[in-house]
């Protein structure tokens, strides 16, 4: 799953994030409680506002739990032990998927 981040946007609402991942907001709230690497700000109403870094971390959590089938505890351990290596691999995979999508779009216009 590759999510395009708007470079001008500093915060994303939980609704925007859940829609981008095609999951319920309750799952995003649950992951926020479970994973220390998520640190959304809360506005005056108490609504979570996710930074681009939070969204990248959510992508990583989504990848581990939903795509690779990790348990929550397994994902937490994996993030703690090999966060940098995992993040580097995930970013490479995301970039390759983006390039693939662009190439397929070009192919379809030919």
From TrEMBL:
The keyword Transmembrane does not apply. PROSITE patterns: HTH_MERR_2. SUPFAM superfamilies: Putative DNA-binding domain (SSF46955). Keywords: DNA-binding. Transmembrane segments: none annotated. It holds the Pfam family MerR_1. InterPro entries: DNA-bd_dom_put_sf (IPR009061), MerR-type_HTH_dom (IPR000551), MerR_fam (IPR047057). Residues 11-81 form the HTH merR-type domain. It comes from the Bacteria. The keyword Transferase does not apply. This is MerR family transcriptional regulator. It comes from Flavobacterium paronense. The lineage of its organism: Bacteria, Pseudomonadati, Bacteroidota, Flavobacteriia, Flavobacteriales.
């Amino acid at each position: 799953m590759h999510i395009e981040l708007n470079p001008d946007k500093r915060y994303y609402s939980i609704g925007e994030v859940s829609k981008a991942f095609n999951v319920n907001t309750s799952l995003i709230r649950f992951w926020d409680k479970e994973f220390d690497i998520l640190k959304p700000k809360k506005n005056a109403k108490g609504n979570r506002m996710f930074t681009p870094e939070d969204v990248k971390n959510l992508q990583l959590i989504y990848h581990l739990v939903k795509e690779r089938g990790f348990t929550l505890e397994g994902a937490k351990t994996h993030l703690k032990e090999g966060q940098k290596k995992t993040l580097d691999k995930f970013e490479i995979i995301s970039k390759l998927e983006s390039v693939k999508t662009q190439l397929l779009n070009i192919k379809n216009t030919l």
